[in-house]
């Protein structure tokens, strides 16, 4: 049985927090690999994003040195909203039924799960790994009542106060983003003049 982690997100831009979480889940759950999937049209994000092409390229640059990280353009190749259930179905077609998928999300997103498209079907088709910071408290018992299939495991990960929003604001103000994202991503942002 193959075990594949799925790291979805806008990655606008990707940063070391994303990479550390993916590595921690890969290690803890003995996954074969983690696939990063930049979302093309995330239904829950309403702000203007950097083009999917730029976000894909940055994700590729940030992950290319890690042999068990991959990047997929699967959501960019599909029109309409980027629903996770459609992505998981497409991945099952590619990898076959003998693959277990582990969808990685931040614990702060768990409260939003009842609003996700076809969430019960999604929870039945893959395992969810919710990564939480040591200082973040979460009561899963109240959330469990919303779902028929509750397939969520909590994993404590290193505490890093990094966000893509913060990176974009720092660039706009002319501040350094050294050590917050990879050198390759920094070079790409400068070359493409993103977030100015």
TrEMBL record:
<protein>
    <recommendedName>
        <fullName>Probable nicotinate-nucleotide adenylyltransferase</fullName>
        <ecNumber>2.7.7.18</ecNumber>
    </recommendedName>
</protein>
<keyword id="KW-0662">Pyridine nucleotide biosynthesis</keyword>
<comment type="similarity">
    <text>Belongs to the NadD family.</text>
</comment>
<dbReference type="InterPro" id="IPR005248">
    <property type="entry name" value="NadD/NMNAT"/>
</dbReference>
<dbReference type="InterPro" id="IPR014729">
    <property type="entry name" value="Rossmann-like_a/b/a_fold"/>
</dbReference>
<dbReference type="GO" id="GO:0009435">
    <property type="term" value="P:NAD+ biosynthetic process"/>
</dbReference>
<keyword id="KW-0808">Transferase</keyword>
<keyword id="KW-0520">NAD</keyword>
<keyword id="KW-0548">Nucleotidyltransferase</keyword>
<keyword id="KW-0067">ATP-binding</keyword>
<dbReference type="GO" id="GO:0005524">
    <property type="term" value="F:ATP binding"/>
</dbReference>
<comment type="pathway">
    <text>Cofactor biosynthesis; NAD(+) biosynthesis; deamido-NAD(+) from nicotinate D-ribonucleotide: step 1/1.</text>
</comment>
<comment type="function">
    <text>Catalyzes the reversible adenylation of nicotinate mononucleotide (NaMN) to nicotinic acid adenine dinucleotide (NaAD).</text>
</comment>
<feature type="domain" description="Cytidyltransferase-like">
    <location>
        <begin position="6"/>
        <end position="170"/>
    </location>
</feature>
<keyword id="KW-0547">Nucleotide-binding</keyword>
<dbReference type="Pfam" id="PF01467">
    <property type="entry name" value="CTP_transf_like"/>
</dbReference>
<dbReference type="GO" id="GO:0004515">
    <property type="term" value="F:nicotinate-nucleotide adenylyltransferase activity"/>
</dbReference>
<dbReference type="InterPro" id="IPR004821">
    <property type="entry name" value="Cyt_trans-like"/>
</dbReference>
